[in-house]
Design goal:
179 residues; alpha+beta; 3 helices; 12 strands; 22% helix; 39% strand; elongated
Length: 179
């Protein structure tokens, strides 16, 4: 490994040259080193899960960009140097986030966000024994992050389960007790 100082040729160069040399920057210093080979360690369970999740996201992106409408949607969100495929992979890799669940009178207000778009929110109302009393899809609010579901009544001691789903089908489940 060598630290490079005041070399005008290597100021803007980053990456691998041939199969021998890698140039990268760390903490503001340019470093030249022998190219790393593949790891000899077995991948961890977490690494295997991340690889699998990325394979699923890539497969989703390949399929979704065949649909001209969704391809145009993802392309509209792409920044410089990005394309619809990149955005579709990013969307498929990340699940939506249920930030808040509020129970107001007989209305459930769910705040759900995603880097792209939450496709639907489903609400399940369960009694104390865990049986579903009612369920249905919430309606999106005007602000784009709040979803509303009008329940018939609240079972005392029961709970409300919220399922937020994004375009690729990733689900996030949260629940809140009814008191």
């Amino acid at each position: 490994m060598a630290l490079v100082k005041d070399n005008i040729l290597l100021q803007l160069v980053r990456g691998t040259l041939g199969n021998e040399l890698t140039i990268y920057e760390r903490n503001g210093q340019i470093i030249m080193a022998k190219k790393r080979g593949p790891s000899k360690k077995k991948p961890t369970q977490k690494q295997l899960e991340a690889r699998y999740k990325l394979q699923i996201a890539a497969a989703y992106a390949k399929e979704i960009i065949k649909d001209p409408e969704l391809k145009a949607y993802y392309k509209s969100l792409a920044g410089p140097g990005q394309n619809a495929y990149n955005m579709a992979v990013k969307d498929a890799y990340n699940s939506p986030e249920v930030q808040n669940i509020q129970l107001e009178d007989t209305t459930v207000v769910v705040r759900a966000k995603n880097a792209f778009r939450v496709a639907e929110v489903e609400v399940h109302v369960l009694d104390t024994t865990g049986h579903v009393q009612e369920r249905g899809k919430a309606s999106p609010g005007r602000n784009g992050v709040d979803w509303y579901y009008k329940a018939v009544s609240w079972p005392v001691g029961g709970k409300v389960i919220v399922v937020a789903v994004d375009l690729p089908g990733n689900e996030t489940v949260r629940e809140v007790r009814i008191e």
